[in-house]
Design a protein that fits this description.
mainly alpha; globular; transmembrane; MFS; Growth Hormone, Chain: A; cell membrane; lysophospholipid:sodium symporter activity; single chain
Length: about 400
């Protein structure tokens, strides 16, 4: 890993390119591994309601380790933290390949992802400054969504060919992410000298929670991003059941293609947000959030692939435009209050608690025998109402 501290704050600096490459490979592995592991569950005849449980053990790791990962990100060079986290992901993917229970292996990947997230977003505020941070977030999100696009497709297509081969590719990609981390420059430690005793660490984290949730701007960001990612992960599993139920297709590839359309749209939306929204005009993203729910509702009522692709692409555009400014707002305000790493850890707690709640409700709805179309319509309508309520609250504040 390079020992020099970059002076160039451009989003095209070598440090930023290394972070982007590492993020692409790591996110590619995450998404390919999800669909490869889902295919493994299908091949081993796990029940349908157990599929969301796979993601729940993943996000559960975020929640359990939330009080600690932010301090880890701020107490070491963030590039090194990213490398360690990707090594944990590699270990989890390799264990699934070697026959370890998929839920255990996927939990290891979740622990790695929990450690990785505060470092990958926190490092952006150390490599870029001011309004370039919105553009850097746009680049990061574009890289992430491109990885979601390609990783999801690769996971589904390879799993249709050979499940073990798909899992092996995921392990190789994680190894590539570890290598890419070697090229991230070693930056100064953000908050050195913090206590590593359990009580002070948890007290520090919950103090960060208190600070961010009591600030109007950061609370607005935390609620918005939590709702968005909770909805996004639930939609992913909704698609896995919607395709065979509504379209009658039982392959692993079609749900990944539909997810890919969302990913392409988010790239477009993230780019638009970087050009049209600044930290002073974040509220411009709110109408897009309301429209996301309405598009989910319309999508659930479709019975053909072409309109489904169009609506999911539109959903992605709205999602990218909605979430990128909120992320940038939290990073900027968090950097000057509790530290960027702690701010992202608090964000992860909120987002993953929302994911766990929404996935749990979705799994219960599936187990109760509710139709996938009814679930989608109800989910989209409630999301639109919730974002509209958040928007009204923000305007009154």
């Amino acid at each position: 890993m390079s020992k020099s501290v970059p002076e160039n704050t451009s989003i095209w600096s070598k440090g930023m390119m290394a972070v982007t490459a590492a993020q692409f490979l790591s996110a590619f592995g995450d998404n390919a591994l999800l669909f490869a592991t889902l295919a493994l569950l299908k091949s081993q005849f796990y029940p349908d309601w157990s599929q969301p449980i796979l993601q729940m053990v993943f996000v559960g790791a975020y929640i359990v380790f939330a009080p600690f990962v932010g301090q880890v990100a701020d107490s070491f060079a963030k590039g090194r933290v990213m490398m360690f986290a990707n090594s944990l992901k590699l270990l989890g993917a390799a264990s699934i390949c070697l026959g370890v229970n998929p839920f255990i292996g996927y939990t290891l990947v979740g622990i790695g992802a929990a450690a990785y997230s505060p470092a990958k977003y926190g490092i952006l505020g150390e490599l870029t400054t001011g309004d370039k941070l919105v553009k850097a977030n746009g680049l990061m999100e574009s890289s992430t969504i491109a990885a979601i696009l390609l990783g999801s497709m690769a996971g589904g297509v390879l799993a249709d060919w050979h499940v073990l081969a798909a899992l092996g590719v995921c392990a190789v990609v994680y190894a590539g992410a570890v290598v890419a981390n070697l090229f991230i420059p070693t930056l100064p430690v953000a908050r050195p000298g913090q206590s590593w005793r359990f009580t002070p660490m948890t007290a520090s984290f919950f103090n960060a929670c208190r600070v961010l949730w009591h600030n109007g701007e950061t609370r607005f960001s935390l609620i918005g991003t939590s709702m968005f990612w909770g909805a996004g992960v639930t939609l992913r599993f909704l698609l896995v059941l919607w395709v065979p139920t509504v379209l009658g297709l039982t392959d692993n590839a079609t749900p990944t293609y539909l997810n890919a359309m969302v990913a392409v749209g988010i790239v477009v939306g993230a780019g638009a947000a970087a050009k049209l929204v600044t930290l002073q005009t974040v509220a411009r993203c709110m109408p897009a959030g309301v429209l996301i729910g309405l598009v989910v509702l319309l999508f659930s009522l479709q019975h053909a692939l072409l309109p489904a692709y169009v609506l999911l692409f539109l959903m992605g555009i709205l999602g990218g435009f909605f979430v990128v400014p909120l992320n940038a707002l939290l990073q900027e305000r968090g950097k000057h209050t509790v530290g960027a790493g702690n701010a992202i850890a608090v964000q992860n707690l909120g987002e993953n608690a929302a994911m766990l709640l929404m996935l749990g409700l979705y799994s219960l709805a599936v187990k109760a025998g509710l139709s996938v179309v009814g679930i989608g319509v109800g989910f989209g309508g409630l999301f639109a109402l919730a974002i509209a309520g958040l928007w009204v609250w923000q305007r009154r504040r």
